[in-house]
From TrEMBL, chain A:
Gene3D superfamilies hit by this protein: TFIID subunit TAF5, NTD2 domain, YVTN repeat-like/Quinoprotein amine dehydrogenase
Name of the protein: Transcription initiation factor TFIID subunit 5
Compositionally biased tracts (Low complexity): 30-52
SUPFAM superfamilies reported for this sequence: Taf5 N-terminal domain-like (SSF160897), WD40 repeat-like (SSF50978)
Entries under InterPro entries matching the protein: LisH, TFIID_NTD2, TFIID_NTD2_sf, WD40/YVTN_repeat-like_dom_sf, WD40_PAC1, WD40_repeat_CS, WD40_repeat_dom_sf, WD40_rpt
Bias kind Gly residues: ranges: 98-110
Residue stretches of biased makeup (Basic and acidic residues): 12-21, 357-368
Organism: Oncorhynchus kisutch
Signal peptide feature range: none
Claim: Ligase is one of the keywords in the record: no
Pfam families: TFIID_NTD2, WD40
Automatic annotation (TrEMBL), chain B:
Keyword Transcription regulation: yes
Transmembrane domains' residue ranges: none
Location in or out of the cell: Nucleus
Lineage: Eukaryota, Metazoa, Chordata, Craniata, Vertebrata
Bias-annotated ranges (Basic and acidic residues): 239-251
MF annotations from Gene Ontology: protein heterodimerization activity; RNA polymerase II general transcription initiation factor activity; transcription coactivator activity
Bias (Low complexity): 648-668
Protein name: Transcription initiation factor TFIID subunit 6
Species of origin: Oncorhynchus kisutch
A GO term from the CC aspect: SLIK (SAGA-like) complex
Alphabetized InterPro entries for the sequence: Histone-fold (IPR009072), TAF6 (IPR037796), TAF6_C (IPR011442), TAF6_C_sf (IPR046344), TAF_TATA-bd_Histone-like_dom (IPR004823)
Domain TATA box binding protein associated factor (TAF) histone-like fold stretches: 12-78
C-alpha cells in the first residue's frame, strides 16, 4: 500500500524537483532516509546558490537539534534558512528518491562516498514530521529514539520495521523484471540482504516484524542456505545476538558477491531511483561487491561457486602465487641391484626396469617451475631409516598397478567390529602396515596388519643390560613379551576426532574433544607430548608428509601449525568463520589446506602464514580433503554429498562429482592420481576418473582470469564404480604403494 | 516453491506451561505469565543453540544418530555443566501419559531393587573391538560374499529403512532448485522370481556355519584372496594374517521378512492347516522342495511348536497330524538346516508320540497312526541330527524308557514310548524292548484277560501288543538261534511268547524264501477329513539295512501335486492316493501312483528307479489296467481308496489288526488284496486271511 503511495508521490515530486538536480554531495545525502535530507533538498529549491558545504553544515545542525528534541529550535532554524513548510510536508522517501535519481551513474567512487555519508546518517532518527504516510509516522516516531551506545553498532540503523518487507519486495520485483542475464547475478543479493534486514529487525527489537519478515521471505532463499536460516530463525531477540557465532560472522565479515559491472549498475540505479535507502545502506555496510568487467555469469556458474557462509572468495584473494609443484626427491643411492635381479628372475623382464629408473632420475633432477624452493621451509634431515623406507617405497612403486577406467583397483575393506563406543577416526601408515583408530571413548587403538606384531621397547633398566654394539640392537631393545596385534593408548579425556601417523611410523598424533593434540610414540606406546592451545574440541590433525610439522584445527576456528619439538604453535591461521573441520598438508609441505564448517576451503602458506586461496562452492561443512599426488589438484567432500575438484594453481573449481547421498568422510587419490576414491556415510565407496575430469576442463585465459568456469554437466560419466558395504560407513580410504585401495569403517548393525 | 518448506522453519517455542511446571519443581510458585513467556522463548533459543552444536559432534563422531553424549559435549562447549545420568545409547524412551485434560511426557525410570542387582550374575563382558578385512571389490567387481550386501538390491531401502527417510527428505531438499540434479530414485527391490516358490537361497553350509559355529570366523573371502595374492602378496598376507581369530562372534542379525515372504508364509501355513487337502499337498511340497525358505524357518518352527502346544490341549488330532506333516516336509527339504530349531521341533514331535490323549474320542479315533508317524519322524531326526555333542538319540531314548518303565503310565503313552523306541532301530529293540517283553506281556494279559476295566484300556493294550509283536518278531528272527519252541518262547517272553513265536516263524519263513520282501504299512486315517498316508517299507528286511529314512511320505505328496486333477479338485474324499513301497534287499524303489477316481484321470510316476532289478509295475485299481509291462514276480501294489465316510483304516503288514479298531473300505481293500495275491507270491504269506 505504502509502496503504491510512494510511487505516486514519487512521480509528482520528481516533476517538481526535476530542475534542481545538482551534482554536489547533496544528492548523496538525500539518498539517506532522513528528514534533514529532504529539508535540505527543499532548501536548495529555494536557494539554489547555496553551496554544498553550507547545506551539509545546516543539515548536521538540524540533525543534532532534532535528536535532542529541540523542535522549536528546528523550526526557527528552518525558517531562517528559508526552508518552506512544503518541504517539511514533502515525504522523505519521495524527495530523497528524487535526489538519488539525480545521481544516475555515480559508479564505484560515488558508492564509496555514499557509504561514508550513510555512516554519518546512521545516527539520524527517522524524523516524525518528515516521514511520508501519516499513520506510519506516528507508529515509527514514537518508538524510534535510539540509545547512544547502540548507535555505534552496525545494526542500529533505524528504518520503519513495517517498510522492510516492502523494500525487500520492491527489490525482488525489480530483480525479477530485469533481463535474464542480470537476474541470476542480482539474485545473489537476496540472501545477504535478507539476513541483514532480519538481523536489523531483531537488533532493534522488532520481534514480531522480524518473524513476519522471516516467514515471508525465508522460502525464497537458495536451498543451500537452509542451515544458516535455521540458526537465524531461532534468533528472535536482541539478547540472543550476543554470543551467537553465526551472528558474529555476519556482522564481522562482509558477504562477498561477484557481480558484473553491468548488473551492478543496474542494481544501483534502481536502488537510487527508488530511494531504497535501507537496502542501499546494507549493501554498503555489509556486502562486498566484487565487480568484474565482462559477461554476467549464468545461474549455474553462480550456484557452483556460492554457498559459503560469507559468499564467494574475493578474486584477489586467490591471486597469490602458489607453488604447487613437488619438492625434488633427495638423491638416494639405491642398492637395488641384488634385489632387482631377484625380481627380474621372478618376472622375467629385465630390460624394462632400468630405463624406467633412469627416466625417473632425470625427471627428479629437473626443477619443477611451479615447485617451491627446496629450502623454502626448513625440513627435517632424512634419517637412515627414512632412506630405507624411501627405497622400499620406490621398490614397491615399481610393482604398482597402473590404474585407469579399465583397470580398477581392488578394495580391501577393514571393518571395525564391536565398536560400540563409536569409531571416530582412522588412519593408515603410508606403507599400510599399521592402522590406528580413534574412538569416542577417548581411546586410540593401533593395530598391526602385518604378521609383525607390535612390541614395546624394553624398560630403561632392561635396556642397560643390552649389548649396544651388537648388530641386531634394534631387535634386542624390543620387549618380546609385549608383542600383540593391537595396542591401546589411553590419555585423552574426550572422543578422539583426528588421528595421523608420522611418515616414519614412529609417532602418532591424535586430536580430541578435550582440546589437546597428543603425540604418541609407537616405540613405547606412551604419550610423549600433549599440545595445548586449542581450548575447544580439535576436529582434525595431520602430519606433514615430511614429518616434524603438523597442523591442527578445531572449534576455535584457528588452524595451528606445530612442530613436534615445540610446545607452542609456530603459526596460527585465522580467517575461517566457523569450525575448522579438516586439515591437510600439501604434498610439498609448504601449504596447508583447511576445510571448515563455513563451507569454504582455505589454503595457507606455511612460510608466511597468509591465506593464499579461498575456495567456495560447497553447500555444507567440509569433512574431507585430498591433494592429488602431483600437488596440482585438490578434492574436497562435504556433508552435501558432493565432491569438488580444484585447481590449486589457479584457485578454480574444475569439477563437481555428484553421486553420494551423505557426508563424504574420506577422499583419496590413487598413487598416480588417475583415480579418486570417495567414501561416504551412505555406506559406499565410489571411484572417479579424475584424469578425465581434469582433461575435460578447458582453461583459457579468460576463465583463468575471472574464475568463471563452465563445469561439465554430467559427472556420472566420471563415475567408474560404486561399491556398497554392508551397513558400514566408510570413514577412511588409503591407497597402498601398489595401488590397492584400503577402506575402513565401523560395522554398524 | 517456498511454501512447502516454510513449516520446517517456523519458530517452535516451548509452551509456557512447561516453564510453570519446571518452576514449580524447583519451588518457585506463582510465576507471572509474562515471565513464563519470556523464559520459554529464551529456553527455546538456548535449546536450539545447543542442539545445533550437538549436531557438530554427531557429524564428527561419524554418526547419524544424535546421542546424549553429543548434548553433553555441546553443553561443555558453552561452559555449562553437562547433564548427568542420561547416558543412553538408544533413544530416550519418553513415555506419554494423559489424564485430566493434561498431557505429559516423562522419562520412565524404574525403581530397582538393589539386592536384585547384587544377586544377578554379572553380564557378559562385551567383546573387544577387532578388525576384519574382506574384499569389497576385486579389480572393480564386487565379490558375492556375506560381508558384502547382496547384489542387485537397493540396499538403502532394504537395509536401512530409517535412513531412506533421510534420503527422501534430502532429495526433496535438493530438488527444490532445478540446477541440482539430485533426483534420487528409489526403486523397491522386488525379486525377479516372484512369489511364492522362490526366494534367494543361501547355501546350506552357510546356514550351518551361521547357526552352529558363531565362534568361528566365516571367511568366504579367502578363496578370492588366493587369486590375486600373486599380485598383491604383501597385502593379502596382511589381510589374511588379520583375519585369523579376530572376529570372535557373529554380530546378531535380525531377519525381516519381505512382503513376498510374509505373504508366502501366510499362505503356506494356512494351507497346511486348512481344510483343502489339495492345497495342503501343494504347500507341503513347497516346504519340502523350495530352496529359499531358510529365512522363514524360525517362523515355521515356532508355528509348529505353538500349534502342537495348543492342539494337544484341545485334542485336535487332525491339526496335530497336519503339523507333523509340516515337520516331515521341513525335514525333507535338503536346503534347510534344522539344527538350530530342534529345540522347538523335537518337543513338538515327542508330544505327538507320548501324549496321554491326542483326540477327543480315544476309543474311536486312530491316534495310533499319528504316534507311529511321529515316532518315525523322531527316529529320522535322531538319525540325521544326533551328534556326540547334542546326544539327541540317547536323550530321547532315556525319555521314552523312563516313562515306559513307570507303572502308572497310560496305555496310550506306553504305546508311544514303545513305538518311539522301536523306530530307533533293531539295536534299541534288542537292548531295551526285548528284556521288557515279559513284564509288558503280563500287563497286557492283565488287561485283556482280566476283568474288563475300560474299553479304552483294552484297545490300548491290544495296540501295544500288536506293536510289540510287529517290531520284536523281526529282531528276534534275526538274533535268536533257530529252534522256535513255543514253550521256550513262553518261558522267555511270558504271555506274548506264543504269538511272538508264530510271528518269528513267519518272519523266518520269509527270510528263508530269500524273497525280496516287501513290507508295508499303510496308514490311512480319516478323521473328519484329513488324510495321512504313510507307506513304510521293509521291517527287518533281508539285509538288515533297514533304516527309517526310507520313509518317503512327502515324496508321494510331491507327486500328488503333479496330478492334473488335483488343483481343480477341491473335494478330498473323491481322491485316492496310492502309495507303494517295495523293498528289495538293501535298495528300495518306490512307485507312487496317484489317481483321482472322480475325474477319471490318472497319473503314474516313478520316484526312483534304484539299483534293484525291479521293474516297476503298476496297476490301477479303478481301471484295473495300466500295467506297465514287466512280469517279474516280486512286485506289489497297495491300493487304498479312501472312503468319504468318517472311518479310519489301518492296514498293517503284520495283519494283526484288531477288526474293532478299524473299518476298512471293503471294495478297495479287496481289490488290493486280490492283486496282491494274484501278482505276488510273497504276499500270500503275509495275508492274515
Amino acid at each position: 500500500m505504502a509502496a503504491v503511495q510512494d510511487g505516486q508521490l514519487n512521480l509528482e515530486v520528481e516533476k517538481d524537483i526535476k530542475t534542481e538536480i545538482t551534482n554536489d554531495g547533496s544528492g548523496n545525502i538525500n539518498a539517506n532516509s532522513s528528514s534533514p535530507g529532504s529539508t535540505s533538498s527543499g532548501g536548495k529549491s529555494k536557494s539554489p546558490a547555496g553551496s554544498g558545504e553550507d547545506q551539509q553544515t545546516l543539515l548536521a545542525v538540524l540533525q543534532f537539534l532534532k535528536r535532542n528534541k529541540l523542535t522549536e529550535s528546528v523550526d526557527i532554524l528552518r525558517r531562517e534558512a528559508g526552508l518552506s513548510a512544503d518541504a517539511d510536508d514533502s515525504p522523505v522517501s519521495e524527495s530523497a528518491g528524487a535526489g538519488s535519481g539525480g545521481v544516475p551513474s555515480v559508479g564505484a567512487d560515488g558508492g564509496d562516498a555514499n557509504s561514508l555519508l550513510s555512516r554519518v546518517s546512521i545516527a539520524t532518527p527517522v524524523a516524525p514530521p518528515a516521514t511520508a504516510p501519516p499513520k506510519v509516522v506516528a507508529a515509527s516516531g514514537g518508538e524510534d529514539q535510539p540509545d547512544v551506545n547502540v548507535v555505534l553498532s552496525a545494526y542500529s540503523q533505524q528504518g520503519d520495521p513495517v517498510l522492510y518487507p516492502l523494500y525487500y519486495n520492491g527489490l525482488k520485483k525489480f530483480i525479477e523484471s530485469v533481463l535474464d542475464c542480470h537476474r541470476a547475478e542480482l539474485s545473489q543479493v537476496f540472501y545477504p540482504l535478507f539476513v541483514h534486514m532480519y538481523l536489523e529487525l531483531v537488533y532493534n527489537n522488532h520481534e514480531n516484524e522480524a518473524k513476519q519478515f522471516f516467514e515471508k521471505f525465508s522460502g525464497d532463499q537458495e536451498c543451500y542456505y537452509e542451515e544458516d536460516l535455521r540458526i537465524l530463525s531461532s534468533m528472535s531477540k536482541k539478547e540472543h545476538m550476543k554470543g551467537n557465532e553465526t551472528m558474529l560472522d555476519f556482522r564481522t565479515s562482509k558477504f562477498v558477491l561477484r557481480i558484473s559491472r553491468d548488473s551492478y549498475q543496474l542494481l544501483k540505479r534502481h536502488l537510487q531511483e527508488r530511494q531504497n535507502n535501507q537496502i542501499w545502506n546494507i549493501i554498503q555496510e555489509h556486502l562486498y561487491i566484487d565487480i568484474f568487467d565482462g559477461m554476467p555469469r549464468s545461474k549455474s556458474q553462480i550456484d557452483a561457486m556460492s554457498g559459503s557462509l560469507a559468499g564467494e572468495g574475493k578474486r584477489d584473494a586467490n591471486k597469490a602465487k602458489v607453488f604447487y609443484g613437488l619438492l625434488k626427491e633427495p638423491e638416494i643411492e639405491v642398492p637395488l641391484d641384488d634385489e632387482d635381479e631377484e625380481a627380474e628372475n621372478e618376472e622375467g623382464k629385465p630390460k624394462k626396469k632400468k630405463p624406467k629408473k633412469d627416466s625417473m632420475g632425470s625427471k627428479s633432477k629437473k626443477q619443477d617451475p611451479n615447485a617451491p624452493q627446496q629450502t623454502r621451509i626448513p625440513l627435517p634431515e632424512l634419517k637412515d631409516s627414512d632412506k630405507l623406507d624411501k627405497i622400499m617405497n620406490m621398490k614397491e612403486a615399481t610393482k604398482k598397478i597402473r590404474l585407469g577406467p579399465d583397470n580398477l583397483p581392488s578394495i580391501c575393506f577393514y571393518s571395525f567390529l564391536n565398536a560400540y563406543q563409536g569409531l571416530t577416526a582412522v588412519d593408515f601408515t603410508d606403507d599400510s602396515s599399521l592402522i590406528a583408530g580413534g574412538f569416542a571413548d577417548s581411546t586410540v587403538r593401533v593395530w598391526s596388519v602385518t604378521p609383525k606384531k607390535l612390541r614395546r621397547v624394553k624398560s630403561a633398566a632392561d635396556l642397560s643390560n643390552i649389548d649396544k654394539e651388537s648388530d641386531d640392537v634394534l631387535e634386542r631393545i624390543m620387549d618380546e613379551k609385549t608383542a600383540s596385534e593391537s595396542k591401546i593408548l589411553y590419555g585423552h579425556s574426550g572422543p578422539v576426532y583426528g588421528i595421523s601417523f608420522s611418515p616414519d611410523r614412529n609417532y602418532l598424533l591424535s586430536s580430541s574433544e578435550d582440546g589437546t593434540v597428543r603425540l604418541w610414540s609407537l616405540q613405547t606406546f606412551t604419550c610423549l607430548v600433549g599440545y595445548k592451545g586449542h581450548n575447544y574440541p580439535v576436529w582434525d590433525t595431520q602430519f606433514s608428509p615430511y614429518g616434524y610439522y603438523f597442523i591442527s584445527g578445531g572449534h576455535d576456528r584457528v588452524a595451528r601449525l606445530w612442530a613436534t619439538d615445540h610446545y607452542q604453535p609456530l603459526r596460527m591461521f585465522a580467517g575461517h568463520l566457523a569450525d575448522i573441520t579438516c586439515t591437510l598438508f600439501h604434498p610439498n609441505s609448504n601449504y596447508v589446506a583447511t576445510g571448515s564448517a563455513d563451507r569454504t576451503i582455505r589454503l595457507w602458506d606455511v612460510l608466511t602464514g597468509n591465506c593464499v586461496r579461498i575456495l567456495t562452492g560447497h553447500k555444507g561443512p567440509i569433512h574431507s580433503l585430498a591433494f592429488s599426488p602431483n600437488g596440482k589438484f585438490m578434492a574436497s567432500g562435504a556433508t552435501d554429498g558432493r565432491v569438488l575438484l580444484w585447481d590449486v594453481g589457479h584457485g578454480l573449481m574444475v569439477g563437481e562429482l555428484k553421486g553420494h547421498t551423505d557426508t563424504i568422510y574420506a577422499l583419496k587419490f590413487s598413487r598416480d592420481g588417475e583415480i579418486l576414491a570417495s567414501g561416504s556415510m551412505d555406506n559406499t565407496v565410489k571411484l572417479w576418473d579424475t584424469l578425465k575430469a581434469f582433461d575435460d576442463v578447458e582453461l583459457d585465459d579468460f576463465t583463468a582470469a575471472t574464475g568463471h568456469i563452465h563445469l561439465p554437466e554430467n559427472s556420472q560419466e566420471l563415475l567408474l564404480g560404486t561399491y556398497m558395504t554392508k551397513s558400514t560407513p566408510v570413514i577412511h580410504l588409503h591407497f597402498t604403494r601398489r595401488n590397492l585401495l584400503l577402506a575402513a569403517g565401523a560395522y554398524n548393525p | 516453491m517456498a511454501e512447502e518448506r516454510r513449516p520446517k522453519q517456523c519458530t517452535v517455542v516451548l509452551p509456557t506451561e512447561s516453564m510453570k511446571a519446571m518452576a514449580e519443581s524447583i519451588g518457585v510458585g506463582q510465576l507471572q505469565e509474562e515471565s513464563c513467556a519470556a523464559l520459554s522463548e529464551e529456553v527455546s533459543y538456548r535449546i536450539k543453540e545447543i542442539a545445533q552444536d550437538a549436531l557438530k559432534f554427531m557429524h564428527h563422531g561419524k554418526r547419524r544418530k544424535l546421542t546424549t553424549s553429543d548434548i553433553d559435549h555441546a553443553l561443555k562447549l558453552k561452559n555449562v555443566e553437562p547433564l548427568y545420568g542420561f547416558q543412553s545409547q538408544e533413544f530416550i524412551p519418553f513415555r506419554f501419559a494423559s489424564g485430566g485434560g493434561r498431557e505429559l511426557h516423562f522419562y520412565e525410570e524404574k525403581e530397582v531393587d538393589l539386592s536384585d542387582i547384587i544377586n544377578t550374575p554379572l553380564p557378559r563382558v562385551p567383546l573387544d573391538v577387532s578388525l576384519k578385512a574382506h574384499w569389497l571389490s576385486i579389480e572393480g567387481v564386487q565379490p558375492a560374499i556375506p560381508e558384502n550386501p547382496p547384489p542387485g538390491e537397493m540396499s538403502v531401502c532394504v537395509c536401512f529403512p530409517s535412513f531412506s527417510i533421510i534420503y527422501l527428505s534430502k532429495a526433496a531438499f535438493f530438488t527444490k532448485q532445478p540446477h541440482f540434479h539430485h533426483v534420487y530414485i528409489f526403486t523397491v527391490y522386488i525379486p525377479s522370481h516372484f512369489f511364492p516358490l522362490h526366494f534367494p537361497s543361501a547355501p546350506k553350509e552357510q546356514q550351518k556355519a551361521e547357526s552352529t559355529e558363531p565362534l568361528k570366523v566365516v571367511k568366504p573371502g579367502q578363496e578370492e584372496e588366493g587369486s590375486i595374492q600373486k599380485g598383491q602378496g604383501a597385502i593379502s598376507a596382511e589381510a589374511k594374517g588379520k583375519k585369523e581369530g579376530l572376529m570372535r562372534m557373529k554380530p546378531r542379525s535380525t531377519h525381516e521378512l519381505s512382503v513376498e515372504q510374509q505373504l508366502y508364509y501366510k499362505e503356506i501355513t494356512e494351507a497346511c492347516v486348512g481344510s483343502c487337502e489339495a492345497k495342503r499337498a501343494e504347500a507341503l511340497q513347497s516346504i519340502a522342495t523350495d530352496p529359499g525358505l531358510y529365512q522363514m524357518l524360525p517362523r515355521f518352527s515356532t508355528f509348529i511348536s505353538e500349534g502342537v502346544r495348543v492342539n494337544v490341549v484341545q485334542n485336535n488330532l487332525a491339526l496335530l497330524i497336519y503339523l507333523m506333516r509340516m515337520v516331515k516336509a521341513l525335514m525333507d527339504n535338503p536346503t534347510l538346516y534344522l539344527e538350530k530349531y530342534l529345540h522347538e521341533l523335537i518337543p513338538a514331535v515327542v508330544t505327538c508320540i507320548v501324549s496321554k490323549q491326542l483326540c477327543l474320542r480315544p476309543d474311536v479315533d486312530n491316534h495310533w497312526a499319528l504316534r507311529d508317524f511321529a515316532a518315525r519322524l523322531m527316529a529320522q531326526s535322531c538319525k540325521t541330527f544326533s551328534t556326540t555333542t547334542n546326544n539327541i538319540q540317547s536323550r530321547i531314548t532315556k525319555t521314552f524308557t523312563k516313562s515306559w518303565l513307570d507303572e502308572k503310565t497310560q496305555w496310550t503313552t506306553r504305546y508311544g514310548c514303545i513305538a518311539g523306541l522301536s523306530e530307533l532301530g533293531p539295536d534299541v529293540i534288542k537292548t531295551l524292548i526285548l528284556p521288557r517283553l515279559t513284564v509288558e506281556g503280563a500287563r497286557i494279559k492283565a488287561v485283556s484277560e482280566g476283568p474288563v476295566v475300560s474299553n479304552i484300556d483294552k484297545i490300548g493294550a491290544d495296540h501295544v501288543q500288536s506293536l510289540l509283536l510287529k517290531h520284536c518278531a523281526s529282531v528276534i528272527a534275526k538274533t535268536r538261534p533257530l529252534p522256535d519252541n513255543m514253550e521256550q518262547y513262553r518261558a522267555d517272553y511270558g504271555y506274548l511268547g506264543p504269538t511272538l513265536c508264530s510271528h518269528v516263524v513267519k518272519a523266518r519263513a520269509q527270510a528263508a524264501l530269500q524273497a525280496q520282501q516287501v513290507n508295508r504299512t499303510t496308514l490311512t486315517i480319516t478323521q473328519p477329513r484329513p488324510t495321512l498316508t504313510v507307506s513304510q517299507s521293509g521291517i527287518g528286511g533281508s539285509g538288515g539295512s533297514r533304516s527309517p529314512s526310507i520313509i518317503k511320505v512327502p515324496s508321494s505328496l510331491t507327486l500328488m501335486s503333479t496330478r492334473p486333477g488335483t488343483p481343480t479338485q477341491p473335494s478330498p474324499p473323491a481322491t485316492k492316493y496310492i502309495v507303494m513301497a517295495t523293498s528289495a534287499g538293501a535298495s528300495s524303489t518306490q512307485q507312487v501312483i496317484t489317481l483321482s477316481s472322480s475325474s477319471g484321470s490318472s497319473v503314474t510316476s516313478t520316484v526312483a528307479s534304484a539299483t534293484s532289478t525291479l521293474q516297476p509295475l503298476v496297476k490301477l485299481e479303478s481301471r484295473g489296467a495300466g500295467g506297465l509291462g514287466g512280469s517279474r514276480p516280486l512286485q506289489k501294489y497297495i491300493v487304498v481308496s479312501l472312503p468319504t465316510s468318517a472311518s479310519s483304516s489301518l492296514e498293517s503288514k503284520s495283519g494283526m489288526l484288531p477288526p474293532s479298531s478299524s473299518s476298512t473300505s471293503p471294495i478297495s481293500l479287496e481289490a488290493g488284496m486280490k492283486m496282491d495275491r494274484s501278482d505276488s507270491p510273497g504276499a500270500s504269506t503275509q495275508s492274515p486271511h
